[in-house]
Amino acid sequence: MNMNNGRRYSIKVRIKAKNLRRKGQTHREIAKELGIALGTASLWTKGITLTDRQKQKIEKRRNRVSPNFSIEQRRIQAFKNLSRFWKPKPTNKELIQRIISFYRKHGRIPYKREFNNTYIEYKKNFGSWNNAIKIADFEPNPIRFSKRFQAKDGHICDSYAEKIIDDWLTKYKIAHEKNLKYGNTTKMTADFSCGNIRIEYFGLAGEVEGYDAVILKKRKICKEKNFKLIEIYPKDLFPNRLNKISGLTKLKNKKIKSSR
Fold first, then answer.
1. Does residue 202 share a domain with residue 155?
2. Which of 24, 31, 92, 197 has the fewest beta carbons under 10 Å from its own?
3. CA distance 197 to 201
4. Separation CA 44–CA 46 (nearest Å)
5. DSSP-derived secondary structure letter, 243
6. Coil, strand or helix at 235
7. Which domain does 223 fall in, by range?
8. Does some domain include residue 63?
9. What is the pTM of this model?
10. Rounded Cα–Cα distance for residues 116 and 114 (Å)
11. DSSP summary character for residue 178
């Protein structure tokens, strides 16, 4: 999925935009037909060159709409239209200040995925995300799953993300077990178990080779054993959206009702 101003577009929309460009449509025509921003249409079709014949046809269409505009005037107007969607790149000082501001607000340094929109700028300007963190005078985050954290209930968690989940369950007094095996026939364990419910934090989904295969295996086991599987991803934790996950909300509400 592609995203623009919070709205998601399918790959099919992007492919259609490219096909329309190859057929000789202008960026404005593509944007209007697909309901996307002009800047998005330009970005998606970058590198597609129009033939001389296609350019001539475009001029004929434009002459029907605004016959008094010269080619140069149209270019100037097009630049003005596109410039509305272009934002100046942040300076190094601004990039570092964003890290410091995040720390002051949240009490921890950010993960690079929380700065997705500008991560490429950090990599380009500082060589790597960790270099930027060091320049901001902080110690880089340990590699996920390489450092253990202790939750409020004493559970030892494999990552800071798991600690957030564990502390959330403790906060709402939801009884849970850590690293319970899925059964005697497998060495796989669940991050958290609440009766017949399994809660998994899939923090490396789509990032580490073989990890997605593990996700599929756990889904299959849960289906076979009739376990309800609640899947949690980084987007659910940064920022914290655990209260918006349907399965967890039901667990919380059930606990609140039973305690009354």
1. yes
2. 92
3. 13
4. 6
5. G
6. helix
7. 149-258
8. yes
9. 0.49
10. 6
11. E
Question: Is residue 143 situated within a structural domain?
Answer: no
Contact 111, 161 (CB under 8 A): no
Alpha-carbon distance of 179 to 151, in angstroms, equals 14
What is the Cα Rg of the chain in Å? 25
pLDDT per residue as tens digits for the range 158-178: 888 899 999 999 999 999 999
Whether residue 140 has a cis bond before it, omega within 30° of 0: no
Q: What tokens were used for 132?
A: 């930027």
- Asked whether residue 64 is domain-assigned, the answer is yes
Other C-beta atoms lying within 10 Å of the C-beta of residue 145: 16
Q: Which residue has the tokens 């593509």?
A: 30
Cβ atoms of residues 22 and 29 within 8 Å: no
d(CA 231, CA 197): 11
Domain count, the chain: 3
Contact 56, 67 (CB under 8 A): no
Cα–chain-centroid distance for residue 140?
Answer: 21
At 97, phi and psi to the nearest 5? Answer: -65, -30
Q: Could you read off the pLDDT of 228-248 as tens digits, one per residue?
A: 999 999 889 877 889 999 889
Cβ contact 238:111 at 8 Å: yes
Q: What does the chain come to in residues?
A: 260
Q: Answer whether 20's CB lies under 8 Å from 33's CB.
A: yes
Average pLDDT score over the chain: 83
Is residue 26 in some structural domain? Answer: yes
Pair (58, 128) in one structural domain: no
Domain end: 65, 83, 101, which one? 83
The torsion angle over the Cα atoms of residues 175, 178, 182 and 187, rounded to 10 degrees, is -170
